[in-house]
Write a structure and sequence with these properties.
Helix content is 0%, strand content 56%. It contains no helices and 8 strands. The radius of gyration is 15 Å and the shape is globular.
Length: 112
């Protein structure tokens, strides 16, 4: 767990999710992936308020065919009003086997 209020990490989020973000936050999204199957995560729609900082695959092991996680890291430059949409699909094919949609809402600072 990260206690940094300017950082939000989502690991294998549900198909539809609402996340509270604000300008200046770092958003990291991790999605399980196995590139040897030919299916890779890609961003279908990226709100202009999110800037992609990195898109990295991290293998879960040294063996051939090992799966792992795709790490997308963003900086939030404003309050996103449209969702970010990720698709798990084969390269150069139109068949999508999973979609993850992350919508955004206003981040409310907790009152003390």
């Amino acid at each position: 767990m990260n206690d940094n209020p300017n950082f939000l990490k989502l690991i294998n989020p549900a198909t539809d999710l609402i996340a509270a973000v604000r300008a200046g936050m770092t958003l990291e999204i991790e999605l399980d992936e196995n590139p040897t199957t030919g299916y890779l995560w890609s961003i279908n729609r990226l709100p202009p308020e999110l800037k992609l900082l990195s898109n990295i695959f991290e293998s879960s092991g040294p063996g051939v065919g090992a799966g792992g996680r795709r790490h997308f890291t963003f900086i939030v430059n404003g309050e996103p009003i449209t969702p970010v949409i990720f698709e798990l699909k084969r390269r150069l094919k139109d068949l999508v086997i999973k979609i993850v949609i992350i919508e955004f809402c206003r981040f409310k600072t907790p009152s003390i």
